[in-house]
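the two lines:
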Amino acid sequence: MKRILIGGIGNVLMGDDGVGPYLARTLDARYQFSEGVQVVDFGTPGLDFVVHIAGLDALILVDAVDNGKPAGTVTTYRRSDILASPVPMRLDPHQPALKESILIADLDGSGPKDVTLVGISGQSYTFNTPLNESVRKAVDDAIEVVLRELEQYGVICTPKEGGTPDVWWEAQGSCEAPAR
Amino acid sequence: MSKRITVDPISRIEGHLRVDVEVENGSVSNAWASSTMWRGIERILTGRDPREAWLFTQRFCGVCTTVHAMASVRSVEDALQLEIPLNAQYIRNLILIAHAMHDHIVHFYHLSALDFVDILQIPKADPAKTSSLIEGLSPWTGNSKHVMKAAQDKVKAVAASGQLGIFTNGYWGHPAMKLSPEVNLLAFAHYLQALDYQRRALGVVAMLGSKTPHIQNLTVGGVANAINLDSQGTLNMDRLAMIKQGLDEVIPFIQQVYLPDVCAIAAMYPEWLTYGAGVTNYMAAPDLPLDSKGTQFDLPGGTLIDGKLTTFKTAADPIFRKEVVEDVAHAYYEGKDALHPWKGETNPAYNEWDANGKYSWVKAPRFQGKPIQVGPLAQVLIGYKQGHPLTVKWTNAALATMSKIGGRTFTIDSLHSTMGRHVARAIRAAMLTELADKHWTLLVNNIAKGDLAIHNQPDFPSGTIEGVGTHEAPRGLLSHWVVVKGGKIDNYQAVVPSTWNASPRDKNGVRGPYEASLMQNPIANPEQPLEVLRTIHSFDPCLACAVHTYDATGKQIVRVKAL
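prediction for all of em together
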């Protein structure tokens, strides 16, 4: 059995930055996976990544990406792409630290051999706004990319009936507290 | 000739800490700290159900998730004057303790030790000599020469592969690096071991919080951990035993490795016990409540202002509730008055960075009109002054270790410094190791008495109520301020530790803690301002986590300009 983690990264309160968690929760609601596969809404971890990626065979991340392509474009990056540029110096030690986390995990031999980042080009990252439509529409395409990746690892993906993703942050004042 | 150095690790999305310093004759003559992103987080909560606010606040920051969840439920509970069942207090306390132990370990080893430890010196070290250095100072079993040799081989292998990647973001070979090859190796061997122990500490958070990075078990009025000692899927004896085991694994690492390492590095960089004091007014919230009403605590709180101690009796002491304001004279917000958080406004008014005008998205919180330093150092100094036994015990132990290694006497006064903040954090971690054990025992004994209560139902009045929830988080005093009107949130303000410490100047031109602490720091080489990093990292800043978007390119981040 291979240990595989699919992680959505991003801040759900910041417009298109929330597409990673949105996709993770949608994927989790739609599919059942064979043993060893985990789907996680990561939020925006710093070096805590090290804890979550330790000992994995494969890590598949989904994140908003700023690469100059039209919003909603899905681009796949591999481990070598992610590690190609130098690790930036940190002033605030909590800057998101995917690259650094992989390299640190490698030091004690726990880094995943395969790392894939499924990037969805974002349009805007404004606080307290929903996903832009072009980005929301790209989620199904990106899910297809993730499923194809999983197939390569021999993972069996079974559709679930009537699964509704728990994207609680999109509900506007969904449940008011009862006033006395 | 003076120079202006701008350290701005910004990617295309704004949102990081930026520091500007002016350097004259080799030391800092002026400093500005700013955040480059408007968060305005609070506005998302207006009109929402106060019972679900914690789910949103947990997304403020990807690293400090748990702490914002905790402060949020506490603010609503304070507004409702709601008591919390003992089991819920103990469970929350254990989460806070395990999270803080994890956070302090990561902060030292993985986020700031390499400001002082030079990886490139390691291949020159003698592993046997490294092992013998620590003999008699620590009973830790992971200090053998074989362990040291293995760590050294790792560095050699990384260097040989040409992928020094992880270690290329520091200023190695910098003249301010002073440790011997052996001490560098020792620290790096522990850096590797720390990866494993911080993971175990986070495992305890996950067992109690049911998930990380975002815990799921909180609720306004208590926790959602059903307790049934004989049932699967609840908090039962097996699970409690696993939690105990996780804590027991981390405790010796903190007492025998982390604290001695910090003391050794402090003793070997004694000059950093003289730089970086900055703002020497301090404040901490009492935390780890021991009763359902929150009148007794295991961590001390209060203020130390101009050397004078005031003790907080409750987590949101009347003085604290009354005397906090946020000043926006130099922050990118509308308005001129310093407002109390319950009256706080968050309306942006951006202009270009202006050294003499508005230059930061961080507001300037003031207590009794003064800037305040928060963080483990604040808690340790306040507890020490109070004679809080646990604080005194571990502070004296740390000072004794530093004095022994340094061959001279270090006193509590040396902790008002850049290195003092690291030492205080390790002291606090050691205090937490004892409290981990204590609160686990309190929980188990309370359950054994037959008390299974975990939650009190909140009941919202139709009128307006105000509350403040505090938490002495790993980075210091965190407070969430809520106004609830007819069961809905009317106003919400979070005054986070990094807001206190990264505060810009106020209307009187008084610098915030980061700014003040950088003054007179030496700068050996303006192109490699390692000294700026040392002082800023010592605070454990956290401003950047609100946005995460993958960036494929490296960016230049240090700009130097002659003035």
